[in-house]
């Protein structure tokens, strides 16, 4: 159940359960059996045991381990410490009241006090067995020696080829050699416009502009190589590069601005990580440094506070995973959190799934369960910060958010525009409100204990006050004592005094076995990595990942980059380089690229430049039936892979072609604006409350406007009342009591205003002045956006990477085109073609608006219809129309009644929309 | 190569219809299935049911208050249960119903009248004691990973019968549950199409004011005729591209998607518009009564979808989670869906659809026979009841049993994996053969588990 106990900084301790090593003495045993066990069975098991299946408050009392783990509020028993033992707290009716209906007798309570003081001797101990791994050291050594992915990549000499004219770079030798072996001719070069389109979408996620098209076409005629080199070099300098490649990274990093799961809570500060990633790609930050910062940024030396802040933000990577904030058991929650960190880290950086070994030895890879808990020890020594900071009154949990966490205060002042500021009075009001709510809560608890109120009423009261406290406290927590905003980020911090964790049998928190020394997956360590006693090993882990000897880090990243450029990875299972993953199509090329990547100083831009300049990249997608039968998956790369644009590129391309795109980076995000709250109903926060808030605001504005116009100082309160009621109609869908204009307590003036407001409530604008109209329209727009499609952000014009990413609530423009599931590590997105997408392209207001923008651009072209059509095709496809397409386009325009020289905008925009909707627009061939 | 592609090259209009017409012939089904992943496919063996309506009861309806009669629980009321806690007898009377004499409580008086169609499975078990986990396991077989939903597996196995509608429809699913009707690693086309948004409380404020049930289903500016012209033009561009490229499954997919979408624009609103249903039919589903209108309309829609050839329809009815206020709230939940469900069964029956439509009712788990507070029950995943009707199951039949109080399944246990295996079996699919290769291994809905409950087969 909920607790109103302010829990200052929740402990995220991993399941560190001290084992009871000694044998119980016969006296101890006798005491437990005579005095304790019968009481537990009689009074507690009914609601708190595996046996009964009831685990209220997440608390189970069946075994010693379970008592030490405790429930949602903390450990039930702390051996030797009566004060800290919540079970004792409950039976003396301090913060908890147990058993619920009556108090145990004084003598029983004394027995428990005595028992806890003597160390809570308890024979109900799971037999702790040492779990023996079925994977032997020899198996591991074998795998290390024989499996390709576990050996350090070796620099490979580019193979010799017969057709020495073809290769442009060493990459091409690797590809061509295999094709020649198979007797396959590589496809010819693609046409210039297709190559340019590829380059622009692949590097910056936008279509080529007219200038780029003209320049490239001209340059291509004299030297395709130079044309490509020049364009690549310039595109790599664009800020849009980081937005494109940063988003690829956000896919694998399972970036999201909310917890996901059933109770979906926002992460208002996750956007800092988004920006950090984009900036890192734009700076061409060495990839190994990028890795180190995300895993152990908090432990890296920093030359300045700015760098320190940036390093802290990087560790958001570990903090922003999906979470079940409604988890009852804090130990379970902590174990799940670490599991998620291990899973994401190993799959993102190592292309290896270690999390499989949480419950048992990995079934296929040489990763024993002990390796999992060795790594769990590394992560267990960090506190993860993801929630909302405590206010001076503490942190308050509610029925929905049982698990809480604070945030990290940034070492620099870096507020975003949405961080709230409060006046002295607002601050004082908040504090007073919290204080009285706390008092109310305690009173209600006392009343319940005294039997003064019904249990159900008490429960209701507690739910209500808990929610209120949590909301108020969150509001107060984000400012300093003067009401100025604090700057926070998500991330991790090291605990003191590192510890090892115990292996958990079947991954169950109440089944601890032997303690496992901290370490890394042995199969990946050619030489064992040493972790000092006073170090958690996380920094060592980060350094190890980014080291040149590491067999996987460079390979995995190189493969990701290759996949985005070429359309499929050399290893197609981008997150699985293990035994069950796909074997590399070109292992020698993978190694070659990995080594060059490391030698280039882990430069992502260099690698992209190299691939873009290769002959392979320039191939056409020309189909060949014979080759297709031989190699249907195009593993040998006998042609280029047609690629469907991803959701962001489709949206950004429409915005770019319509000319409406806003290239300025929005600071923060919609989620930051909304703050820390639960996402419900596809909107940030309670949709009704949101609508009410908008209406309230609008009401004030309209009120001021009216007052200014009439210059009257009418009786404010009744006017306000009438407005409130009138504007209440904006809350359509809520049953709003009808206000009778003849109601006696409304003044005549109020009545007149009320009638007007009722009209506005129906969105009728008759009789309103233009300024009133604007205010009301703005309010309605805002309310509609919030309530109708708040998170779809249909009116936003900035790049897609900045749209709010709330788990399970991706904006429609992204969701419809196979956006990455923000709860999963996604190296390869789906690329489906669904009816839903077709409906979106045919009917969505955003698409229609961009088509109109596109049409008005086309309209500005001097010339006849065929000139306009050519311009239109150039913008959409980067090529002029074929003669057939020209004819069909003119026919379409005619059929809509467009005359040659006087095309209406709407007719032209139908044509523009058609090009957006067509297959060629969404495919890069 | 493929004859269909040759057709495409020569025929310039009506692509979609043509494609589906050829598919309907079922000639070389395998080859065609490769081309159109939604084309009807033959099952592994003769199916007993051709389509599914899944009435998903989110929150965990109490079996001991609905379909699992426990006289001993009433006798032992107030005593301590075997697993602790104080036993709580059901506030509702159980009675024998129909010719079969199935015991069903007064919570579901209307459904009880259809007792002879029901096949109760009173020995359900799953592994998850909490809502999200159990819900996900009920839909996908596991709570640990993101896996394809039952509906997606069904569509993957059987394809669909109507080219104007999606093959797997989830009506107003709770938000944040997309994985429960998702395709996961199966091709996206097998995922459930969400129709309607759950719990959107202010539809009148939404764009267009109509509370659109399918996003972007209407063009705000163009008439059908105008849009068809636009679409013909788009398709001419697409076909031109396809001809130039010779082989391009992606472009073929785009072409198909536009044809389906265009037809959906007509088919969906028409299907969603229940005003043409007779007053009698509407009354059967309780569409006119505010208490049952919401779920009634969804059940009616489910029938309309099924009738139109959709393979798998899921309807969700939520908030069965009565830790407190069992007596009033459980009854209120039941009242909202009792008549609609009974109406659905009756309507399917009178239309001759029940015999090959499998209707499934169930929550993610049941509730404890012991009380929580004075008037509530806790989660219970060790024993609970679901039921099936129609499509090849025995009517008026009870399968499996829980212990005397209803704590735990003891007889003919039906784990959620067994349940999945049985549903697939009824659809003519062998749960061990229905596999999909992903990340180097063959996955199935039932993982390495699952036994068909053959006793319930008619």
Please name the two chains that share the biggest interface, counting residues whose Cβ lies under 8 Å from a Cβ on the partner chain.
A-B, 92 and 83 residues
Placed side by side, the strands forming the largest sheet of chain A appear as: 1-2
Q: Flag low-confidence runs of chain B.
A: 1-33, 198-212
Give the count of helical stretches of chain A.
Answer: 37
3D structure, described in words:
The complex is a heterodimer of chains A (925) and B (458). Chain A is mostly helical. Among the domains of chain A are: 26-117, no CATH class; 687-790, no CATH class; 837-924. Chain A has 37 helices and twelve strands. Chain A has a two-stranded antiparallel ribbon with strand order 1-2. In chain A, helix 10 crosses helix 11, helix 12 packs across helix 13 and helix 17 (424-449) packs antiparallel against helix 18. The radius of gyration of chain A is 32 Å and the shape is globular. By secondary structure, chain B is α/β, with parallel strands linked by helices. Chain B has a single domain, classed as Alkaline Phosphatase, subunit A (3-Layer(aba) Sandwich). In chain B, the strands form five sheets. In chain B, strands 1, 4, 5, 6, 7, 8, 11, 12 and 15 form a nine-stranded mixed sheet that branches. In chain B, a hairpin with a 2-residue loop joins strand 16 and strand 17 (441-443). In chain B, helix 10 (279-285) runs antiparallel to helix 12 (326-350) and helix 11 (293-307) runs parallel beside helix 12 (326-350). The longest helix of chain B is centred in the C-terminal third of the chain and has 25 residues, at 326-350. The radius of gyration of chain B is 23 Å and the shape is globular. Residues 1-33 and 198-212 of chain B have low confidence and may be disordered. At the A-B interface, strand 2, helix 18, helix 27, helix 30 and helix 32 of A face helix 8 and helix 9 of B.
């Amino acid at each position: 159940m909920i607790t109103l106990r302010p829990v200052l900084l929740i402990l995220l301790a991993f399941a560190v359960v001290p084992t009871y090593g000694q044998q119980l003495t016969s006296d101890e045993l006798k005491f437990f059996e005579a005095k304790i066990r019968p009481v537990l069975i009689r009074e507690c098991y009914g609601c708190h045991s595996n046996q009964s299946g009831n685990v209220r408050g997440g608390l189970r009392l069946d075994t010693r381990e379970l008592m030490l783990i405790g429930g949602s509020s903390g450990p039930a028993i702390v051996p030797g410490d009566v004060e800290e033992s919540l079970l004792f707290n409950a039976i003396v009716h301090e913060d908890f009241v147990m058993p619920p209906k009556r108090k145990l007798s004084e003598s029983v309570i004394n027995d428990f006090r005595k028992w806890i003081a003597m160390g809570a001797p308890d024979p109900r101990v799971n037999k702790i067995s040492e779990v023996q791994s079925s994977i032997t050291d020899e198996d591991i050594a074998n795998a290390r020696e024989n499996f390709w992915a576990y050996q350090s990549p070796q620099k490979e000499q580019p193979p010799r080829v017969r057709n020495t004219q073809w290769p442009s770079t060493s990459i091409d030798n690797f590809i061509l050699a295999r094709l020649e072996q198979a007797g396959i001719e590589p496809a010819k070069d693609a046409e210039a416009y297709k190559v340019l389109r590829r380059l622009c979408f692949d590097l910056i996620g936008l279509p080529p502009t007219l200038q780029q098209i003209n320049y490239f076409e001209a340059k291509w005629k004299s030297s395709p190589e130079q044309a490509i080199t020049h364009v690549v070099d310039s595109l790599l300098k664009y800020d849009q590069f980081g937005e494109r490649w940063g988003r690829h990274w956000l896919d694998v990093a399972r970036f999201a601005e909310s917890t996901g799961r059933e109770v979906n809570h926002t992460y208002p500060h996750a956007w800092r990580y988004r920006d950090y990633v984009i900036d890192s790609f734009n700076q061409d930050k060495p990839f190994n440094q990028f890795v180190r910062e995300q895993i152990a940024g908090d432990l890296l030396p920093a030359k300045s506070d700015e760098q320190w802040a940036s390093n802290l933000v990087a560790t958001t990577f570990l903090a922003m995973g999906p979470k079940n904030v409604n988890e009852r058991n804090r130990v379970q929650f902590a174990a799940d959190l670490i599991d998620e960190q291990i899973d994401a880290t190993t799959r993102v950086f190592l292309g290896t799934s270690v999390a499989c070994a949480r419950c048992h030895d990995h079934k296929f890879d040489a990763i024993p369960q002990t390796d999992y808990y060795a790594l769990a020890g590394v992560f267990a020594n960090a506190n993860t910060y993801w929630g909302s900071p405590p206010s001076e009154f503490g942190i308050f949990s509610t029925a929905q958010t049982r698990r809480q966490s604070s945030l990290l205060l940034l070492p620099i002042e870096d507020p975003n525009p949405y961080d709230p500021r409060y006046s002295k009075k607002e601050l004082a009001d908040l504090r007073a409100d919290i204080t009285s709510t706390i008092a109310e809560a305690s009173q209600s608890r006392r009343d319940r204990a005294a039997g003064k109120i019904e249990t159900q009423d008490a429960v209701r009261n507690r739910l209500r006050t808990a929610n209120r406290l949590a909301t108020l406290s969150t509001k107060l927590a984000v400012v300093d004592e003067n009401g100025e905003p604090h700057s926070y980020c998500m991330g991790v911090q090291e605990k003191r005094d590192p510890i090892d964790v115990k292996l958990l049998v079947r991954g169950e928190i109440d089944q601890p076995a032997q303690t496992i020394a901290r370490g890394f997956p042995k199969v990946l360590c050619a030489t064992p990595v040493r972790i000092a006693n006073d170090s958690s090993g996380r920094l060592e882990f980060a350094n190890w990942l980014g080291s040149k000897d590491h067999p996987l880090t460079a390979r995995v990243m190189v493969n990701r980059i290759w996949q985005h450029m070429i359309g499929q990875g050399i290893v197609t299972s981008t997150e699985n380089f293990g035994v069950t993953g796909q074997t590399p199509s070109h292992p020698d090329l993978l190694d070659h690229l990995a080594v060059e990547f490391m030698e280039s100083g882990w430069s992502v831009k260099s690698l992209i430049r190299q691939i873009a300049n290769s002959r392979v990249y320039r191939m056409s997608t020309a189909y060949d039936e014979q080759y297709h039968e031989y190699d249907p998956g195009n593993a040998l790369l006998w042609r280029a892979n047609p690629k469907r644009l991803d959701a962001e590129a489709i949206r950004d391309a429409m915005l770019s072609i319509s000319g409406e795109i806003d290239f300025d980076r929005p600071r923060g995000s919609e989620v930051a604006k909304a703050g820390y709250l639960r996402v419900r109903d596809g909107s940030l926060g309670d949709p009704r409350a949101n609508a009410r808030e908008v209406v309230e605001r609008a009401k004030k504005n309209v009120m001021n406007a009216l007052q200014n116009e009439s210059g009257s100082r009418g009786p404010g309160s009744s006017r306000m009342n009438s407005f409130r009621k009138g504007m209440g109609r904006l809350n359509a869908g809520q049953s709003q009591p009808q206000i009778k204009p003849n109601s006696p307590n409304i003044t005549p003036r109020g009545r007149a205003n009320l009638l007007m407001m009722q009209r506005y409530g129906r969105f009728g604008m008759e009789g309103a002045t233009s300024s009133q109209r604007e205010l009301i329209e703005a309010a309605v727009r805002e309310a509609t956006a919030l309530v109708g499609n708040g998170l779809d952000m249909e009116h936003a014009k900035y790049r897609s990477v900045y749209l709010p990413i709330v788990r399970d609530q991706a904006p429609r423009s992204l969701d419809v085109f196979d956006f990455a599931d923000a709860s999963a590590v996604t190296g390869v997105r789906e690329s489906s073609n669904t009816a839903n997408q077709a409906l979106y392209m045919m009917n969505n207001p955003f698409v229609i608006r961009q088509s109109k923008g596109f049409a008005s651009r086309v309209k500005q072209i001097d010339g006849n219809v065929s000139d306009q059509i050519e311009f239109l095709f150039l913008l959409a496809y980067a090529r002029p129309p074929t003669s057939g397409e020209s004819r069909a386009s003119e026919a379409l325009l005619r059929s809509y009644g467009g005359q040659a020289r006087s095309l209406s905008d709407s007719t032209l925009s139908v044509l523009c929309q058609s090009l957006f909707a067509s297959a060629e627009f969404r495919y890069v061939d | 190569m493929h004859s269909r592609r040759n057709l495409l090259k020569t025929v310039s209009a009506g692509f979609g219809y043509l494609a589906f017409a050829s598919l309907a012939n079922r000639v070389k089904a395998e080859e065609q299935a490769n081309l159109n992943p939604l084309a009807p496919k033959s099952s592994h063996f003769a199916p007993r049911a051709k389509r599914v309506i899944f009435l998903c009861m989110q929150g965990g309806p109490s079996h001991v208050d609905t379909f699992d009669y426990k006289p001993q629980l009433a006798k032992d009321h107030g005593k301590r249960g075997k697993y602790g806690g104080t036993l709580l007898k059901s506030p509702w009377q159980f009675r024998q119903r129909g010719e079969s004499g199935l015991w069903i409580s007064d919570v579901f008086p209307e459904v009880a009248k259809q007792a002879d169609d029901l096949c109760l499975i009173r020995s359900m078990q799953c592994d998850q004691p909490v809502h999200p986990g159990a819900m996900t396991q009920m839909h996908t077989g596991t709570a640990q990973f993101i896996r394809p939903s039952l509906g997606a597996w069904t569509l993957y196995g059987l394809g669909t019968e109507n080219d104007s509608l999606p093959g797997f429809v989830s009506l107003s699913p709770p938000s944040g549950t997309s994985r429960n009707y998702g395709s996961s690693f199966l091709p996206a086309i097998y995922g459930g199409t969400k129709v309607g948004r759950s719990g959107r409380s202010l539809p009148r404020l939404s764009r267009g004011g109509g509370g659109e049930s399918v996003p972007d289903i209407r063009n705000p500016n163009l008439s059908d005729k105008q849009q068809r012209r636009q679409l013909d033009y788009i398709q001419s561009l697409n076909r031109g591209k396809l001809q130039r490229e010779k082989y391009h499954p992606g472009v073929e997919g785009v072409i198909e998607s536009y044809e389906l979408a265009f037809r959906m624009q007509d088919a969906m609103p028409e299907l969603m518009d229940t005003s043409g249903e007779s007053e009698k039919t509407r009354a059967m589903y309780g569409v006119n009564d505010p208490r049952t209108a919401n779920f009634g309309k969804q059940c009616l829609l489910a029938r309309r979808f099924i009738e139109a050839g959709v393979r798998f329809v899921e309807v969700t009815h939520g908030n069965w989670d009565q830790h407190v206020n069992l007596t009033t709230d459980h009854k209120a939940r039941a009242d909202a869906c009792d008549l609609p469900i009974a109406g659905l069964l009756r309507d399917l029956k009178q239309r001759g659809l029940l015999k090959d439509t499998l209707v499934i009712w169930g929550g993610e788990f049941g509730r404890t026979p012991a009380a929580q507070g004075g008037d509530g029950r806790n989660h219970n995943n060790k024993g609970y009841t679901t039921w099936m009707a129609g499509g090849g199951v025995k009517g008026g039949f009870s399968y499996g049993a829980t212990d005397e109080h209803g704590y735990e399944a003891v007889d003919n246990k039906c784990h959620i994996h067994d349940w999945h295996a049985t549903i697939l079996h009824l659809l003519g699919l062998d749960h061990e053969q229905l596999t999909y290769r992903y990340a180097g291994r063959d996955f199935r809905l039932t993982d390495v588990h699952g036994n068909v409950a053959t006793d319930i087969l008619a």
